[in-house]
Amino acid sequence: MLVNYTNGLVNNLQDNHEAKPAASTAKDKDTKPNPNRYSGYVLAGAFVLCLIVVIVLVTVLGPTYPLFILEDVTVRSFNASAGTPLVTLTSHLDATISAGNPSRIHAIGYHGLRAYVEYQSQWITAPEVPLSPPDLYQSTASHRSTATWTPSFAGDAVRVSPALLQDLNAGVVNVTIHVKGRVRGIIGALKSAPWSLDVRCRASLPFGKLGAGVPVPGGGLKFALGKPCFNRG
Ligand SMILES: *[C@@H]1O[C@H](CO)[C@@H](O)[C@H](O)[C@H]1NC(C)=O
Ligand SMILES: *[C@@H]1O[C@H](CO)[C@@H](O)[C@H](O)[C@H]1NC(C)=O
């Protein structure tokens, strides 16, 4: 060993491989008393049990997404101004959005839910409208509880893609309602960390199709959709 150190870096490698393991095992044998085998097994068993519990909890409390459905959209007003080159839209839409919990194991906690409407990936209503209620506790699927929100969206002379004029001429306008917020899985007193929600509900509004929308009190056309939304983490 002494010789190796004096010879410098190259020999240090050799030194590590040969000398150290031998030294440490000898030391272990000398200083440590015989391990108590029984308590060793108990410790190992407890460790494995803890690991299983953690894995089960992580699996059970992991992100299971609520199922959102866009039930209907009522178009109160939808006025595009065809000024060239800018096209602007003044609109007022009411929607009914529901969410169910598909899990039989855990309840869902919703936090800070909010929504907005897009046309061709551009906001056409105020950036975000809080859903009422924004926070909600929903029990497991076995209780068949459904949460429902009826947000109202409005945009005033919002600049939009000129494609809107063609769509209006064709008689169908596709919009997307985004729902954002956070959700957690809950089992009794246990709560998972919240994960963020970005739900997209696509609505195809057939303005031009006679009878597709039902006139509602207060003015406007109600389109029944009942379409599942898409979840994205
Ligand atoms: C557009 O606005 C006018 C009033 O400015 C209103 O009478 C009309 O119903 C609106 N059209 C639509 C489709 O909302
Ligand atoms: C609007 O949505 C409908 C149904 O999803 C689809 O068939 C149609 O092609 C869409 N139109 C446009 C202009 O994107």
TrEMBL record:
Compartments reported by the entry: Membrane
The species this protein was found in: Trema orientale
Annotated TM spans: 38-61
InterPro entries per record: NDR1-like
GO biological process, one term: defense response to other organism
Keywords: Membrane, Transmembrane, Transmembrane helix
Name of the protein described by the UniProt record: Protein YLS
Cellular compartments per GO CC: plasma membrane; plasmodesma
